[in-house]
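Input record, target 12 of the design panel.
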């Protein structure tokens, strides 16, 4: 079933290279979707700058702007709703999604994680730490997981995965770079499959 253009809301904390890949794919017509709003818990994040450069509404929301966690959660959910968001994409978002947002967007929040979950995920496992753990475990293959978000870190149903080889002599940085390049491909491809109806999130 072909659905209308999917409206995406992105939550990001730092560099926003996944956000950029999604924006580019939308602008270049590879992805039948548009990024409607970007929210970050980090006022200095490159993700917010990237959104601004593409004239996408963008907002800084954190414990500093909203000291009460329930207010922060409700505010984020409201921003997503106000911008007509269908699917929320976490792209390097280092905070837990609150219960109000989870309820309002149940089954429609995706996260990308730079490893093959359920391996090397959970509390504190983000960025460089994930790749260090992969190397310490002596894995010969790592990869990327896109999954639905629930109330625990890195735990919800898996939507898509792809493998990346660990090469002899890899450092965490080198491995992270190769994984990140593939993240961009996998995130865009997964969103494209959701937009085309090939992946039905409500059936996961
Ligand atoms: C990505 O590698 C993403 O998988 C990771 O943060 C990076 C964000 O990069 N997320 C996690 O580790 C979540 N557990 P980006 O800001 O350049 O898109």
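The sequence produced for target 12 reads:
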């Amino acid at each position: 079933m072909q659905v209308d253009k999917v409206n995406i809301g992105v939550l990001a904390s730092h560099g926003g290279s996944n956000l950029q890949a999604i924006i580019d794919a939308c602008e270049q017509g590879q992805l039948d979707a548009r990024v409607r709003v970007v929210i970050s818990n980090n006022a200095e994040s490159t993700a917010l700058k990237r959104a601004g450069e593409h004239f996408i509404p963008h907002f800084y929301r954190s414990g500093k702007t909203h000291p009460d966690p329930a207010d922060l959660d409700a505010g984020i959910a409201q921003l997503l709703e106000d911008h007509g968001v269908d699917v929320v994409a976490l792209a390097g978002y280092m905070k837990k999604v609150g219960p109000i947002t989870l309820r309002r967007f149940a089954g429609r929040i995706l996260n990308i994680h730079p490893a093959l979950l359920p391996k090397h995920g959970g509390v504190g496992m983000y960025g460089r730490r994930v790749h260090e753990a992969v190397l310490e475990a002596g894995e010969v293959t790592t990869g990327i997981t896109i999954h639905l978000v629930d109330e625990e870190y890195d735990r919800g149903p898996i939507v898509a995965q792809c493998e990346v080889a660990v090469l002899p002599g890899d450092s965490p940085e080198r491995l992270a770079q190769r994984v990140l390049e593939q993240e961009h491909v996998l995130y865009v491809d997964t969103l494209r499959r959701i937009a085309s109806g090939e992946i039905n999130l409500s059936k996961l």
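Residues 6-197 form a domain with the Rossmann fold fold (CATH 3.40.50.170).
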